[in-house]
Each structure stands twice: as C-alpha cells, then as structure tokens.
User: Fold these one by one.
Assistant:
Number 1:
Amino acid sequence: MNDVPPEQILWYTVDTDRAVEVLKSDRQTGLMPEQIARRQAQYGPNELQDMGGRSSWAILIDQFKNIMLIMLIAVAIISGVLDLLDFRAKTIPGDIPFKDTVAILAIVILNGILGYVQESRAEKALAALKSLSSPRVRVIRDGKTSEIAAEALVPGDLMLLETGGQVAADGRLLEAFNLQVREAALTGESQAVTKQPQICLPEDTAIGDRVNLVFQGTEVVQGRGTVLVTNTGMQTELGKIATMLQTVETEPTPLQQRMDQLSQALVTGSLILVAIVVAGGLILSGWQNFRDLLEVSLSMAVAVVPEGLPAVITVTLALGTQRMVRRHALIRKLPAVETLGSVTHICSDKTGTLTQNKMVVQAVHPITGSFRVSGDGYAPEGEFYSVETSSKSTDRPITVQDHPDLHLLLLACALCNDAALQKEKGDWMILGDPTEGALLTVAGKAGLQRDQCAFQLPRVAEIPFTSERKRMSVVVERMKAESSRTTIIPQLIIPHSSSPSSLILFCKGSPELILEHCQYMQRGDRIEPLQSAQRDRILSHNNQLASCGLRVLGMAYKPLETLPSEMGEDEAEQDLVWLGLVDMLDAPRSEVQEAVARCRTAGIHPIMITGDHQLTACAIAEALGIAKTGDEILTGRDLEKASPTELEAHVDRVCVYARVAPEHKLRIVQALQRRRNIVAMTGDGVNDAPALKQADIGIAMGITGTDVSKEASDMVLLDDNFATIVAAVEEGRVVYTNIRRFIKYILGSNIGEVLTIAASPLLVASGGVPLTPLQILWMNLVTDGLPALALAVEPAEPNVMKRPPHDPSESIFARGLGAYILRIGVVLSIITIALMVWGYNYTLTTYGVEDQRWKTMVFTTLCLSQMGHAMAIRSNSRMTIELNPLSNPFLLVAVGLTTMLQLLLVYVEPLRNFFGTHYLTPMELAVCLGFSVLLFTWIELEKLVMRFLFKRKIED
Ligand code: ADP
Ligand code: MG
C-alpha cells in the first residue's frame, strides 16, 4: 500500500477511506498507543519552530536607537575632543587619557547590553506566557475520546473540531456537521468556508478551495467535524509560511510611550540648557571661560536625562506580568498591565466566572409532575423521587420506566448533547459544556448512557447551539430493526406513527423560546395539544425555578419527514412536542462575594452579563452582592429596543444584563466607553471576539474559552474566576504606583544634581564643576538605578484597593508627582549646595586651593541623600518607622550595596583614580552623612505635616 509516501499525497484528491488507509488509522478507534509513540518519534512535536518575536539583533540594535544614549555618545565625543586638546597641551603624569570618553562609551555599551538582556528576558517571559495558553485538542485515540496538548498530535490522529476552536494541524475531513472555518490566517479571506468531507477535488485546486481539508491555524466559526490529521508541525501549510507568525506582542504601553516623549523632552530641554549656559557664559565673560562652560553644560546635560529609567520600567512591567500569572491572570498584551489599574467597570459572564460551572440537575419537570434527583457531582448515580404534594411516598425512589414522559425527557437529555462523561481515577469528569454534562449525568442516573442511546438512535443531523439561538437540536434516526426488540429506548409514541418517517428531532434550550416553538405536549404516553393555560403554567413554573437562582432548560421533540438541511432550520424547529423543564444548580463561587466587595471599595463597578434567564441572573447577582433587590435589569430585548443614547443613560445604573447575545456585549462596552469608563469584559465564545477587542481589557476564559476568544483578548483567566480579575486589577495598580514611585525617585534626584551643578559657578568661584559626567552617570545608573529596581517590587500598600481608579489618560505628572519632583529636587539641591559651600571653604582653608575633596563630598552627599530618599519614598502616607523594613528586603540590599560601592569609590585607590574622586577623612565622611540624613528627615516631616494639616493620609 505504501507506493506513495504519505508526505507526497495530495489529500484533497483522495477519498476518506483511502486517506484513512494510507495513514493506517481507524475511523472508529483512531491510532493505537504504540502507533502514536512511533509516530511521535518519527514526526516530532506538532509545533512551529520558534521564529518568535524580534530577532536578537533587532533587540540589540533597538537599544542604541534610544535618544538618551545618542546624547551620551555625543557627550563622550565632545569630552574626547577636549581631552585631546589637553593632551597636546600638557601631559599630567598618572592621568589616564580619554578616560571619560572611554568610560562613558563603556557605560553606553553596558547599558545597551543590560537593556538587551532585560528585553530578551521580558520577550522570553512573554513567549513562555504564550505557550502557557497553548491550545488543547480533543482526539479519538485507542477508541476513547480524550483531550491532549496540540503538540502531541501526529499524522493519523482523529481530531475533533468544534465551534470556536483553532485547528491544530492540517487534515482531511472525515465528517462535518455544518462546519464553517475561517482561513484568514492562511488565505487572507475573512469569509468563512463551508467544509465538505464527501467530495474529492482535482489536483489543481487552489488552497482556498480545498473544502475537504482543514488547515492548522484556522478557526472553526461554526459546527463540528472529525478530521484525520495528515500533516503536523512545520509540514503544515502554516508551517511553510511560519516566519510571519508567532510574533509576541510587545507594543509599548501608554506609559512607555509617554516616557519616550518625556525623555525626548528632557533631551531637548537639556540641549537648550547647554545652549543657554554656554551662550550666557560667553556674553558675561567671553571666550576664556568657554572650556569651563562647556564642561558645566556637558555635566548638566548628562544630569538631566534619567538614563536608568527605561530599563526599570521594562523590568517592572515584566515582573508585573509574572506576579499576575502567579495569581492565574495571563497577560497577552503588555499595555494591559497598566490599563488594568485604571479599570472602572468589570463586565463578567455569569456562568463559570461568577459561578462554579459545576452544574448539577436538581429536578426534572415533565407535564405530569416534578421529580427530585439525588446524587452529587457528575457521577451518574442517583435516584428520582416524586415531589407531588398529593403523593405520600416521597421518600421512596420511583422507577423512571413507569413514567414515559419522564423517560423520554431524559432520553432527550442524553441525545441532544455534545458532552462526554468519563471516569478518571475514580472521579467522574465531563468533557465539554458543563450544562450538557449535567444533562448526561441525570440521564445516566436513569440508566440512559449516551453512547448506548446514540448507538440505537444514531445522529444524522444537528443544528448547533449558539448564544444567539439559545437552543440546539439534533436529528436521530430510528433503526427499524431495533425498534421491535426490547431496548433501553422507550417506545416512542409519536403522532402520525403510521408515517414512514423514522427521524426524530430533539431540541433543548431556553424554556421560553422552546415553548414558543411547541404546539403539543407529552403527557404520560400521550401527545396532547398545548393549551395557553398550560403554557402559562409552564412559564410561571420556569420563573419560579429561575428566581431561586437555578438554570432552567426546556426540552422538546418531534418526528421529522426529511432532514433539516433540506427544509431549513426554522421550519424544523416548529410544531414541537413539549417534554418538560430541567433545572440545575450552579452555585456561586465562594471567593467571588469577597472579590465583589473589594471592587466596591476600590470604586470599580462589577456587572453581570449573561445569556441566562433574568430571574436566575438576578438571584445569583443578589447572592454575590452585585445587585440589590429591585435594581434595574436589562434584557437582550430591552437592549435591542434602546437607541445608543438611551442605553448610555442607563448604563451607569444597570448591574445585571440577562438573556443577552454576544453582539449586545459590544453595545454595552461601547455605551460604557462613551461615558468615559475603562471597561474590562470577559468572553468565551467566537462571537464574543468583537466585544473583547473593543473593551479596554478583553478577558478570555482559560478553561472554557475558545481559541478565537483568547486570540482577541488582552488577558486570559487561567482559572476562569472573577476573583482573579480583581487580583489582576490590584497588581495593575501596584505596578502603576511603583512606576510612579521610582519616577519620582529618579527625577527628583536629577533635578537636585542639575541645580547643584548650575549653582557651582556662582557660589564657588573658580572651583570648577563639582561633578564630572562620569560621576553623574554613575549616580543615575548605579546609585539611583539599583534602589529604583528595588522600589519596583515594593509590595502593595494597604490602600491600593481602597481608592477609586485613576484616569489612564492623566499626565505622568498628575496628582502631585510633578510638584513632588520639583520640591524634592530643590530641597536636595539646597542641602547639597549648602554642603558644597561649606566644603569648599573648609577645603580651601584646610588643604589649599589645589585640593578638590569638596567635590567628592558633594558627590557622596548626593548619593547618600538618595539612599535616604529611597527609604522614605516607600510610602507616601506612612512614616518609615511604621513600615516593616523586611517587607521589601531588596531595598535594604540595594541601599546597603550602593552605599558600599560609593565608599569603595572613595577609599580604593584605582577606583579613585578612575572616577576622579578624593580620599575623605572619617570626619569629612561624617559631615556628608549628616547632610544626607536631612533629605530623609524632610520627607518624613512632610508626611507628618500633611497628616496633621489634612487629617487624612495622603493618597498614593
Ligand atoms: P451564559 O453562559 O451567560 O449562562 P449562554 O449564552 O451560554 O449563557 O446560554 C444562554 C441560554 O441558552 C441558557 O440560559 C440556556 O437556556 C441555553 N443554553 C445554554 N447552554 C445550552 C446548550 N448546550 N444547549 C441548549 N441550550 C443551552
Ligand atoms: Mg455559556
């Protein structure tokens, strides 16, 4: 049979039988374990080779595109030229020529490499995050349906496709039900293609027309299918063009963009400053001071620019994503880290996010009475009890077979179902939708196993469930031979039983809707017309169940003449026979109530959006604290009637939206956004994608979400839990607060440096510039940089979730940040200038004009002051003594380390030569220390004064 190697077969030209044969697979059982192992060894994992993200070179080159670094390079060159002139004039023994130039260039390169390392790590971290959300697929292997990682697929596997899934490998379709696939990733065509397994195509068929194949990376927008995997990994059509894909999204965050603007502004500002100083100096004193002026201005230029800042921001954001993933929130787009902190509304699905999504059927209600169901979880073990008030024997289980209508209702549960029940390690689990899992379980309790039922009544057609239709139907065929034998299938009593039809349609969905489509009802073993009084009774029963927070489904059936594809969906679902209601409990998640309360104190509005009944929604919303009794509820129908402006008027008050379809979600987001809110919105289905894209934070479900929704999202909830969203918001706020904190810290110091340098020519006549560009770089990168990194991991302050969200469009300098930087910069410079004046006169009188140790005192004081600043800035409202010093051990280490490094610069001879510092006596060092403590004291006093003035703690 192996005349043609499988790799060379054009799969769209062969029929399904031949394809199965070539790949030595089996339509029913799939591959056997030993085949799988062999093929995994032969073909390797089903993954695209890593072409991820920017190339290393691109990342490295990007580092040097930074305007701050370009300016530093210019400074290096100018100071090199100055050195060259000096070198010609006089050679000072022991002096290293071009020291500053070399050192600055070394720092530029080092900074570039550091930035490169940070960014590559951040990029890798994001790539790792992405693989965490790598898709899983359902396959048939060894006769069993199971879920495996997409990487484990091999040619010959039977892969099951369902709505919303991403196709994980190339394959030949064996079966398809209404299967529509969007192949934009491959063909660029956004219109979905309807797939047809039966046909064979000619060899010259273009890729977009190969309707009997599916391709990796494409999306199932509707329907189901079974696929024989033919190619995996790099052998797939997508693999052949894989270079364009797998990009990790590292778009700059709004803050990073604004920081880029800021650094440009600072560079421009510093160039203007240089021009002013040089020009002013020239006008005042002429050319003979040009050299000094140039030195002053170079130092100022270096001092203004916060060289260390971009790296610290990158690291902080990356650390933020890591903390979030530890709390089960997976960030897909970096800007989300920041935006999360400003979220004002969280719109959440009910089922699975606010509730546990562990459905258990409580009772079934055919026309003739209600039956309570016992048993826990998904185990199909339990009994049915009649809850008829008239009956006295409520504690004795009934026999389902004695109640034909109940039996038929349960059969509908088993057949109109796409889920599967499995026993794994003694636990019963479901594969698929929990709502359907619950129905399988209850049918199983009556001895109706899906597989057995489906064997006797095989499915021939289906109309799938969508959140818009809120119902689903299947058509099964009665085996003629089977019907005479005694089987587990009840003898169906169907009108026109004389007709040759052996097709039956089962339908389930939202009770109101199903009931609208019913003309008859099943009472016992008879079919009766459905009177309007009975209709009302069923509806009020439905409302009564829903208002207890139960999820209620309606069931119906009818015999069919022809398959629905030939007669149209709507027609098929008309004139149904009503079977009854099934109610199931989906308990609220226990941790959600507290998370909702945290939202409230944090000024965030939690909103429930659900396809479920308004009364069910309301009951659960009240239990969770999302809504109060009597709150306004909007339904999908209300939304349809309301104009955008009307909706806008309501949107601030409504906390619960019920019976909505995915397209309504989009309208809700838009209305909220027009009211200038920042909206986070959850979603799981294919049709949720537009709303997820529109929302400021689109959140996909990690467990139940479709690949399509994940692709559209900014964040994925690994545990599908509402509480995780709130945790992510908290982390987002912490990240934003910390970024603001070290911006204050770094820029405050820069202003201090600039003012000190600017003051020196005025105050210390002919003393020269107190700080060389090299020393300033050292401060900006090392002695400011290390503590800033430590401040980036400062734990949350107690009030992060006790204040309203901030407007994300606010300036970086908003809420007092700009004022703080100026104020602290001025205080720092006053302290340093005071020290400088004292130190200069002291040096002059003690050591003489030639001695320059006052410069080292200025340098040391600036550095040590910043250590105090770092300690004090940990909290804006609490005094440092009120904080636990060990809650940020990194800061202690950073401050200790930096102080030590600074001392090494003063006390180690070679370093002293290199950095141009001088030896300080212990007394002189003590003076520096004394001055340095002043800044810390000032900040602490500020906090105290603010506390007394405003009788409240300052906001962070
Ligand atoms: P949500 O996920 O917000 O609870 P859905 O859109 O999933 O809402 O469901 C909306 C309604 O559709 C449900 O209240 C139920 O009546 C019906 N429904 C849900 N799942 C199914 C299903 N698998 N088959 C048929 N009907 C369903
Ligand atoms: Mg749902």
Number 2:
Amino acid sequence: MTAKTMDELVSLCKRRGFIYQSNELYGGLQGLYDYGPLGVELKNNLKQAWWKAMVYDRDDVEGLDASVLTSPKVLQYSGHEDTFTDPLIDCRSCNSRWRADDLVELRCPSCNSEDLTEPRPFNLMFKTNIGPVDDGKNFAYLRPETAQQIFTNFKNVLDSTSRSLPFGIAQIGKAFRNEVTPRNFIFRTREFEQMELEFFVVPGTDEKWLDFWVQARLKWWADQGIDPKNLELHKVKSHELSHYSKTTIDIMYGFPHGLEELEGIANRSDFDLGSHTRDQAELNIKSKVKENPDSATRLAFQDKQTNAWEVPYVIEPSAGVERGLLAILNEAYKVEKLEGGKERLVLALKPHLAPIKAAVIPLKRNHVGLVEQASKIKKTLQSLQLGRILLENSGNIGKNYRRHDEVGTPLCVTVDFQSLEDHTVTLRDRDTMGQKRLPVSEVPAHLQGMLGIK
Ligand code: ATP
C-alpha cells in the first residue's frame, strides 16, 4: 500500500524532521525546502547508493564535482540561453503567471478569467553577479543542470585518466531552475540536486547504450525499494525533445499527484561536445551546432589505430534526488492494522537508505548501568561505519518503537536489567515487530546482515 495523499507525506516529513519549508520563519520562499536531521541522512544515503552503483561498481566511470556558478559562454554555446525556456502566460485580471502547458483550458486556474496574454518564452536560468561591480556585464548563471561542466571537463578527465571509449563521468550536485509554478512538495522546486552520468560512446553504438542504461536505471530504482509496477517508460515525442536530444526515454513514476517524470535518459548525440569544441570544421560533427570561435580546446577522441578524430556521442541518465526521495517515501509509507483495532505507521525503507540504522535504547531513562551498557553498544555499532546509530535515552520502550517505525529504523536494540547480568539484549525488527534475545557480541554481525554486508 502506498501513501494515500501527498499531505500525509508532507506531514510525516515535517513532524519527524525529514523536510521543512525553507525560510518558513519569514513566511517561506516558494519552491525551496530544507532537509532536517533525518532528511539529510536519507538524502545522503540515496546519493551514496547512486555513486556506488554508477562509479564504484563499474570500471568505466570517473567522478567529478564542478562549480555551480557557470560562465555565460558555457550556457550560450550549450543552447540554454536561447532555448531553456517555458512558455509563460499572464492573467490580466489577477496578475498571476502560469506555464502555458499547465493550462488545460484557456482560463486562469486562480480566478477563472479568460483574459490571458499570449504565451511568451521565459528563461528558467538564475543569474548572479560576479565581483564587486553590478554593471550587468560580470555575471554568471547558477547551473540549470550539472551536465554542462561535465562536457567542459571532458578533455581534463580524459587526459588525467587515459580512458578510452566507452567511458562515463558522473556528478551529483545542485541545479537551479526558476520554475514558473513550483509545486507538489519536493517534486518541482527551484533548487534541487541531480545525479547525472554522461556516458561517452562511439557514434553508432549510442542507441544500444541508451537501451542498456534504461534497463540499468530501472533495476537501480527497484533496488531502492520502488515497485517496478509503479514505473513506466515513456519515449519522448520528437516535437517535445530538448534541443540537444536525439532520443529520450523518461522513467515515469506514479507520484501521489500523478504519473510524472522521475528520471530522463537522453541520447544527447554529439551536440554538447560538438558545441563546446574548437576545430568544429575538422571534426565531422553530426548535430547542428553553432559556430564556436571562443572554445580553447578540442573536445574529441582520437582513435589510437586510425588516428582519426571523432566527437563521441553521449548517453545521459539524469535523475533528480528530490523526486527520488519523494518516490521512495511514497513507496515506504505504510499504515498497518494491528490486533485490537490499532494501527501503526511504518516507513519500510530499504535498510541501506534508512536515516538511522539502529537505535540503542536503555529500558530506564538515565539509569547509570543501563545507559553505560547502551553507550558501549552504540559506540561499537557506530565504529562499523554503517551510518547513524542513535542512543535513545528517553525511556518508554513502546513509544520509542513506534517512533522508530515511523522514521524507518530497521533495528532497535533494547538494554534491560537482564543485560547487565548476562550481556544479552533484545533486538526488535521494524518490519515483523518480532523480538529476539542475542548476546551483545552478536549484535554487530546481525546489523551487518540486515544491511546486506555480511
Ligand atoms: P520536467 O519535464 O518535469 O520539468 P525535465 O524534463 O525538465 O523535467 P530534466 O531536464 O530531464 O527534467 O532533468 C533531469 C531530472 O532532474 C528530472 O528527471 C527530475 O528528476 C529532475 N528535475 C528537473 N527539474 C526539477 C525541478 N524543478 N525540481 C526537482 N527536480 C527536478
């Protein structure tokens, strides 16, 4: 069973410290969210899972962490200055603004007026000043996608790693879009994180690699706890493709507000490297690119046998961290009926994503002997570096179990008076609510087992 409404997720996220409205103290800023004590852990765990699958588990991918502030030249040649726009419509009656493609009928969703302007392009990129003089000339963009600085670093990475095709460059980082109508909680925000891989391939092998990455990404989302039944592949229609794309497959997920894009996997052809490269005329670039007199570097690959230069094609799986979190929270949220007509809310997260891996709970709050024993167990478990282990010194075991069910902690370790005598503890499982007694010395291996490490 998935969450019934977005409101239930929003409420859980705020109550338990996953996600808060940003700048709430001063009325909030629309389209921005802050990640609280548990949100930051969940987010980091998701990013780590992506990095592990995309970089560590492969032998053909390198990592990168490039700057957010981006030279206007990069986004001029990438095509974003001209084409990274949404069609905007103003309501003349109430002055509200809408994305034209969001208006199903030609009426203002706010006041119902039909007195609307014609759609006009609105560029989604944020600008900021560079240096002390605000003369409108020295500015940078906040990157609208992490991808561009991967392309501009193509030669740096190639030269410093001696890679040959196919190979990829992966990056996780913030992206910024001045969305006209941010909404649906963290689904569409103005500041978000992307997990992007640019996978460079020999032209002609691109569609085969596109298929490969679509399948690999579907499997990865399933490994994060998304039921494959809730995912759909949509091939983007040719008239809806981004300016750089030859083919794009969107992975759609049934969010609480409807079926929408979770991740896009694009065949960006040789458009980006071709656009940013020097020596365009000598490189047989197949996409339509603007002439580039400004680039300092040739972004191409030389075949060692034939010495011929070629601009690689690139396949890009691009996933949003926040949309991933929303889907994962939606999948994990379960209300279970218990005996006696009671209910429990449980967040059945995959253990590797859980913000707290284990809570160690002394049966009696502030009892010196119990707290000391619990602290020792907490330290031992923490030293395994599996993620956050919490010492829960607040008494009331039942309340603690319920709280940890709600935040997805897979394991609770309870230290009671018997523990002081025989060095055994009670382990309580989040999903089955089953309890068993184990010697303290066996707890680390048990937790590692739950996390699939041993
Ligand atoms: P949409 O059509 O929903 O605006 P998009 O096609 O513009 O998305 P891409 O440019 O393909 O999105 O970006 C890749 C991924 O980045 C998306 O699949 C999504 O997960 C994430 N993303 C894009 N825009 C936003 C946003 N405003 N807020 C949160 N995540 C976003």
Number 3:
Amino acid sequence: MLSQKIEEICNRQVEREGYSFILYLAMASWAETRGYPGIARWLYAQADEEKMHMLKFIAYINERGGRAVIPTFRKPPEEYESVQKLFTEVLKHEQFITGSIHEIVERCLEEKDYTTHNWVQWFVTEQIEEESSVMDILDKLNLVGEKNMYMFDRDIFGLRSEAEPEG
Ligand code: FEO
C-alpha cells in the first residue's frame, strides 16, 4: 500500500510524463510541417515512449492500492525557432524529468518505501539513456550546422529505425 506522500509524488509524475508525451507530439507536428520527416519520426517515437512511461506510473499506483488521477495538461508551445532550439528544449525537459525522478527516489527513502524505491530504478536508468541520446543529437547538430538540415534529417531518420526494435 502506498503512503499518501508516495501516491502524490507518483501522480505528479503521471502529469509530467503525460506532458512530455504531448510536448513531443507538438514538436513532432512542428517538424513534420517544416519538412523534416526524420526529426518528426524521432519525436513521434519519443512521444510514444513518454506515453508508455505515463502508463507505467498509472498502473503502478493502482496496483499498489493508490488511485492514479488523470490530469489536464497545459498546451505545449506550437512554434520553435530552429531545430537546434527545439533539441535544446528537449534536453532541458529531460533534465527536469531526471530531477523529478530523483525526487521520487528521495521521497521513497524518507518514507522507507523500499518497494517503490526499487521499482523506480528503471526510470533512473532510462533517464541516463534519454539524456545521452539527446546530447548525441545536439553534438551531431553542432557538427552539421543549420545549413545541412537535409543531411541531418536523413541521418536522424536512420537513427530512430535502428533504435525501434528495442522500443
Ligand atoms: Fe519519460 Fe523522457 O522521460
């Protein structure tokens, strides 16, 4: 049975993972309409992963005797100045999510909830990968520069298809 404090912080994470889902959808739609199918594909796949993260939290809260609450989500931005700016925002957002997962770890230790502490380790590891894949993309972007967006878009298209079999 989850304590109230753990249930609250897990529900906060339902909102944050859900917002990540719609944020990346908004970004994907922006990229698609700007003629970047590769970037859009990467972001749609990323959005799917965020939806899965949200569902994991919902299932866990309900399984442990809590009640997952489905929140309303604020509207994500519609416009992005450039592809570079967009991926800088993705990285900032992922760093925020990492901090948020770490706060759950801290709360579990305070509450002596070693079960949730163990369960949430999957997200601790996942965040390392999430941040590192976005940092790789930003490195690539810095190398190719704004003028070679066509090449970059083709490149990132391949990136996601390689990543897809592992989900
Ligand atoms: Fe679910 Fe990208 O963090």
Number 4:
Amino acid sequence: MKILFVVSEIYPVVKTGGLGDVAGALPVALAELGVDVRVMLPAYPAVLDAVEGLGEPVSLGDPLGAGETRLLRGRLPQSGVAVWLVHCPALYDRPAGPYLDAIGRDWPDNHLRFALLARAAATAAEAGSLLGWRPDVVHAHDWHAGLAPAYLHLRAGRRPATVMTVHNLAFQGNFPAAALGPVGLPPECFSIDGVEFHNQVSFLKAGIRYSDRVTTVSPTYAREILTPTLGCGFDGILRQRGADLRGILNGIDYRAWDPASDPLIERTYDAGHLARKDANKRAVADRLGLADAPAAPLIGVVSRLTDQKGVDLILGAIPSLLAMGARLAVVGSGDAVFEEGFRDAATAYPGRVGVWTGYDEPLAHLVQAGSDLLLVPSRFEPCGLTQLCALRYGTIPVVRRTGGLADTVSDASRGKEGTGFMFEAATSLALSGAVSRALAVYRKRPAWRVLQRRAMEQDFSWTRAAREYLDLYAEVTKGRARRPASASRKRK
Ligand code: ADP
Ligand code: GLC
C-alpha cells in the first residue's frame, strides 16, 4: 500500500498544534505496518534546514502562476520519514510561521500557498513515471490540503483514491470568490454542490465534497459534527457523506512522551516510582515562580489559549481552585486577551499561579510530568492529545465531556474505575466541581496512586490508529483501484 500524506506541518520541524504531532507520528506507525508513506509538505525554511538526503529536484513548472515549483525528496532525521517538499521560494521562503506572519496576521496569499501544496500532490500522484512512485491513496489533512481531492476528482483519467481527514472543522480555509480562478478551479465548482460556502471558496468543503472517504479524529466528534451545534455550518454536507464519514481516534507518540525516558523532564519515573514525580513538581515551581509547597496539588494547563479550549472557564475558576489549596501552572499561547488574562492572574496571585505565555516544547513536557492534574475544559475537541500525554505521565486529566476527550477519559468520581474527572456544562462552576472531586481522591494517597497507575496503563499508541487507517485504505482502494475519474464522478 502506497500513501501520499499531504499536510501543512510536521513534528519536530514545524508544529503549531496536534496536527503536527499526527503528521510526525502516524506515518511512522503506518510504515511499521509495512505501508509505504511519503509526506508532502511545503518547503518552509525550517524544513529545508532539517531534511536530510535531498535527491535531484523534479520540476513541476509554475502550476498556479505563483512561482517556479520543484519537488525535493528527502528524509526527516530521527524518524526517517520520507518527505516530499514543495519548493516554491516565492510562496514559502518566509520567516515566522506556516500560516501567520510575524505579527500574527494570515499570510495574504494563503489561498495560493496551500492550493499549490494540493496541486503538487495531485500532480505527483498522477506523475508516477516522472517520480517512479504512484500512491494508491492520497490522504489529505485539514483545509490546507483540501483542494487535493478536488483537483484529482476533476481531472480526467486514472487517479488514486482520496481520504480527507478533518482535524478541526472550525478551520475551513474560506477565501473570497475571486480566489477560484487563481487556485485553478473551474467556474462550475462554485456551487452548493462544489466548493462554494456562503459565497466563498472553501478549501475544507472541497476536501469533504470531493474525497472518497472523510475521517475525523475521534468517534464522538464524528457524530457531533453532524449537528448544527458543532457542525460549523458543514453538518449538512457531512450528513450527505453519511457512510463515508468515520472517526479514527488519534494516538500519541510514546517514544516522545514516555516519563521513563523523557530527556525534557527533571527526573524520569514510571508507575512503580511515582514519588519521583515530585522532583518535576519542584522544577515546574522553580521555572514558573511558584512557592515551594510540595503538598499543594499542582494543576497544569498546556494549551492553545483560544475559545475552543475553554480557557476562559479556567480564568473564571482560579479563585475557587486556589481556595481549594491548589496551585496553577500554565504554558500556552494564543489570543492576546487570554494571554493577558493569565499574566494578570499570575500578578494577582504571586507564588500560586505561574504562567508562561509562548510555545515551549520542553516546558510542556515538564508541566505534564510535574502536575498532579491537567485541565482540558474544551468547548469542543476533535481529539485532543494533551489529555493522552497526561494519562501517560500519571497526571490526572480533568476534562469537559466532548469529542475525543469523552472517548479517551473515563470518570473516576464516586469510586468508579475511571482515569480522570469529567464535567458537562461549559462553566467555571462545573470545572471547579470536577477539580474538587479530583482533589477529594488526591488527598487519599493510596486511592490516588491506584488512579495514577490506571491512567498510565491506558494504551493510546499510534499502532491501533494506524491499523484502522490501513483498513480504511484497503476499503477505499478495493474494487475501485485506479478507476478513471469520470466513472467515480458518475457514482456521486
Ligand atoms: P490542538 O491541536 O487543538 O492545539 P492537541 O491537544 O491536539 O490540541 O495538540 C496540542 C499539541 O500542542 C500537544 O502536543 C501539546 O503538548 C502542544 N502544545 C500546546 N500548547 C503548547 C505550548 N504553549 N507549548 C508547547 N507545546 C504546546
Ligand atoms: C486539531 C484538534 C485537536 C486534535 C488535533 C490532531 O488541532 O483541535 O483536537 O487532537 O487536531 O488531530
């Protein structure tokens, strides 16, 4: 089975969130099952610096009139993942992030930057003889790759099967209608049955509409997005895709997230030596300016600071969490209003609330290792990875019952054999209630240790997810392998 993964970020080279984690780890797990995976992504400067063994470039010409484009093929160091880089300096040779400029605005030509990624994927998928490799499946991730299934569907001739994975329905890649021509889509696509969404061109809708299968990253989120509440305006089209939609739960990379060998934490530990976690708690306190209070429960937050993540519920709950005797350790970045809110809280409660605003991978590991609880009060959560890391680190997750959080954490209140604590209402009060139930167990040391060990035993490795993707690839290629695009068009 040959798979071309099309994605806009990949850990450890370019990462803004869980998408990068998935792109860094799922291909490795698939390769371990014998799948031949190539990951296609833009040749951002950081990627060019990191990739090894670059072969001869292959010219793709100037497909969108945005600049000369070449494919560079190499490997990521450490994991050895094969990467195909779309090299177009006019679009990708820029400082700052993959999506935003240095002051946090979207790059004004993001429609071209990600259309080119998708176009290169479609071309490479067809140009088997040019590249000596033709995928059975093009697997597109999020809106950045959403046009790849569209380009392939609209071309005449043979094409590989296509899978579109939605990591977050709230990010849709919607652009003014005038973008249609520049991204190379024909006018007839601009309809309710095509890429049109509220009079804009939607890259995500293109992916959902034109791919053979649609997946998202947890079974519960796959159901939730069929409702107007969490469907972000796409519930109708997703319901139309019906049986072609499924949820495959993410995993985490237990090589990067293993408290017994993690080089980024103060002291390694395992389920048999949980007292060693205390050294990490002290290190978090040092790092974030918290008063030394080993007996006080430490509540960690590792998150984008956005409305999705429900961080306003945490801000509202701070007085009551502190009244319960807890300390708060926050590492996060995101909306200015939330960053400021947490910095203000650190000023208002010195020694009891410690905050670091920014993106810091080592600190994220340390906070996971040193905290007793991890808060994830998301309003919606397609999967969520931080609660999975917390479980592995014996750090008990307190989560809102939604999306992947509902699928990966079970409630341990009132003596139940759960792995964390859950609440329903998106309110600070409900969040405080769940923390209070957690702390009741925290104070009964033997019961807490049992809970920590149970959490650490959970298996959210990528191997299970990779098997499910492999089944999906087998299903989507079966019988339709290399069917001409015109035939598959008739089917829809
Ligand atoms: P999302 O992708 O919606 O942000 P996930 O839980 O799927 O949420 O993934 C978030 C990833 O980003 C995790 O690997 C988490 O450790 C990491 N992360 C989030 N915020 C920070 C931060 N400020 N510094 C370092 N890592 C972070
Ligand atoms: C998105 C979602 C998150 C998910 C991640 C990886 O960023 O917000 O829930 O874990 O993608 O799939």
